[in-house]
Design goal:
Immunoglobulin-like, six-stranded mixed β-sheet, 320 residues, 2 domains, mainly beta
């Protein structure tokens, strides 16, 4: 029997609700000043889901029904939309732009397991994505034995950053980006290259570390490579049917995704980079520190919403 999960996302001045079991997670999101984690305190005015860039990780299971509610607040100035790459639905009916003050609700089935991007599709789409309206959705396979069990999991969302003038759409078409980043921060997981700050990802020797990687774009391809290591297993789009082994570098196009596993036997530091080096050296490096006393970290470490999250209990009658 399928499970029904309720998800409500409002762009900018919006609410995000993902109903899992009996809990509704509700947060307000809007245009917020997001720190770029470059160690210098630089900030940009981002358009966000749930007040963070990238948006919160959504996680469901293959076979679930996802009830999605989308509201564009009356305080917003622009139309917005939501495009779930994990969904197979009516584009004209469900993915169209809605104006401030309008709402949209629909249900879709999580038919295929994997890792997928979600993003705002309002025009100009390139700007809505570049300014932060992008995130990852994981659809776990219903067969728990379809993939090896991971000891640790991380989500990395790669995007290009346009800081000089986020309203200069022509510069986005011309690829005049300033940085390429993982999870909304310049060298967020790289204290070696960060001017100040930057924090390692962590793992213990012998652990299977799983990376759910999404390339949010809007334009560049990523060539994801673990320096001094190898991807032991790679699944295109995170689907267990699309399995590769022993991969040195895996290319992911804009709005593409992959699940990549690495088992590191020795202590040390292992940089994970896009081997498009002009992008790596502009901020897209994450360093995995492998040590015996590694601490547990969340799926998207050190990424927090700029707004407080309110959690409400709900009654069974709402979970439809």
């Amino acid at each position: 029997m399928s499970t029904c999960r309720r998800l409500a996302i409002f762009p900018m001045a919006i609410v995000l609700m993902l109903m899992i079991g009996m809990i509704a997670k509700t947060a307000h999101a809007k245009t917020v000043s997001v720190e770029m984690a470059d160690g210098e305190g630089a900030k940009m005015l981002a358009w966000t889901f749930n007040g963070q860039f990238p948006g919160p990780v959504v996680r469901v299971t293959e076979g679930d029904k996802v009830n999605f509610r989308f509201t564009n607040s009356t305080t917003n100035a622009r139309p917005h939309s939501m495009d779930f790459h994990a969904a197979e639905t009516d584009y004209l009916k469900n993915y169209h732009e809605i104006l401030p003050g309008e709402s949209l609700e629909y249900t879709w089935d999580a038919k295929r397991p994997g890792i997928f991007v979600y993003h705002c599709g309002a025009s100009p789409m390139i700007q809505h994505i570049a300014r932060g309206m992008v995130g990852a959705i994981i659809v776990d396979p219903k067969n728990k034995k379809a993939m090896p069990k991971a000891d640790r999991e991380y989500v990395l969302v790669q995007t290009e950053l346009f800081t000089k003038d986020p309203d200069d759409v022509q510069a986005m078409f011309d690829r005049k980006y300033d940085n390429v980043i993982f999870n909304g921060g310049i060298f967020r997981y790289d204290p070696v290259h960060a001017t100040k700050g930057g924090q390692f990802l962590q793992a213990k020797p012998g652990e299977r570390v799983r990376f759910y990687f999404v390339n949010g774009g809007p334009n560049n391809f990523s060539a994801l490579h673990p320096i001094a290591e190898m991807w032991d297993d790679v699944w295109e789009s995170g689907n267990p049917a699309n399995h590769l082994k022993g991969v040195q570098t895996y290319v992911v196009g804009p709005a593409g995704a992959a699940t990549l596993d690495m088992v590191v036997e020795r202590e040390g530091v292992y940089p994970i980079v896009t081997h498009s080096l002009t992008d790596a050296l502009r901020g897209a490096i994450a360093i995995l520190e492998v040590k015996k006393d590694a601490k547990p970290l969340p799926l998207m470490p050190f990424v927090e919403p700029s707004l407080k999250v309110k959690v409400d209990a709900v009654t069974p009658g709402l979970a439809k």
